[in-house]
Amino acid sequence: MVDISVIVPVYNVEDLLPRCIESIMAQTKKNIEIILVNDGATDNSGAVCDDYAKKDERIRVIHKPNGGLTSARKAGAEVATGRYLGFVDSDDWIDEDMYKRMWESACKYNSDIVVCGLVFDYEDTSIPKRNEISDFEKEYYSRHDLEELFPVLINDGRFFGRKLQPARVTKLYRKELVDENMLLCKEEVTVGEDMQLTLPVLLEAKSMSVVKDFYPYHYWFNQKSMTGKFDPKYLDKIKIMDKRLKEISAEKGIFDFAPQLTNDFLGLAVIGLKNGVIRNTEGKESALAIIKTYCNDEMVVEALETHTMDKLPITIKVFLQLMKMKQYQICFWICKLFFKN
């Protein structure tokens, strides 16, 4: 039996795809399978996948109509045969010892989920690399330990105070838990879709281990992603995400994450508003219209009234109060002067 199935959704990345595939092929952990899911790519990505499958018998290729990231990941998980499942995005790459060290942790602790960190790599080399990992202090968490984390797992009272970084690319999941919970992942969730899997898996996991101070996953930021335009549908997308995650929390009935999810949603809304000013290319009036949309949105208004974040810095407290008071002009200038990054 294969130890680890690595699932790679592929869509229009023919130039970057070889770097990704070759980094997985080079893993010092050899008993793996690599499942490349061509999600209806319109460039030569599908052909690149087929070429690599001829070079390495561990590679399997699925060709399917375009359905998005969640659809592609589901398709890969359905055919996976590994004891554990890992995920890599097709424009990223991994260090050669990533799955060896995560597998060793899984075996040592009989973990249902294994967590590591990632490093943000920028096409603009003048931007320093940045590491990120979930805010877990121990190497091993029993079921009791996990339950003690639940009250602060998604928000601990700080602005974006996530103990859990939900990215599935920094996790190994026991396959049975993925099989049970992948059906909860809806294709219409296109922002924060990783939390759809990581949250219910953690709710059911009997154990979790963490590979401390280990950042083998390279998350690629190109110039387009760094300087991209404001997404006018972003607010609608995070509202869909918030609704779905609260539904998952209620369906599981293990712990009520609704208040923490409201806090997380409000943080995302503030970031969306900020980007509506900073990345707006249509002038001040357009930016003010975006601010008004956010400040008057029913879900944002409710979150401003009901959030439970009690460890906010004074700057964020003031900004949230200005949003509640609908002080659009002041919000605009704060974003311009203080929220540049």
Say what the CATH topology of the largest domain is. Answer: Spore Coat Polysaccharide Biosynthesis Protein SpsA, Chain A
CATH architecture of the largest domain: Alpha-Beta Complex
Number of strands: 12
What radius of gyration results from the CA coordinates?
21 Å
Q: Are there runs of 5+ residues with pLDDT below 50, and where?
A: none
From the spread of the alpha carbons, the general shape counts as globular
Text of the CATH class of the largest domain: Alpha Beta
Distance linking N and C termini:
47 Å
Q: Return the string of H and E elements.
A: EHEHEHEEHEEEEHEHHEEHHHHHHH
In percent, how much strand structure appears in the residues? 15-25%
Query: Numbering strands along the chain, what is their spatial order in the largest sheet?
Result: 3-2-1-4-10-6-11-9
Give the rounded overall mean pLDDT. Answer: 95
Overall helicity: 40-55%
Major sheet summary line:
8 strands, mixed
Provide the structure class. alpha/beta
Q: What do we call the CATH homologous superfamily of the largest domain?
A: Spore Coat Polysaccharide Biosynthesis Protein SpsA, Chain A
Number of domains: 2
User: How many helix segments?
Assistant: 14
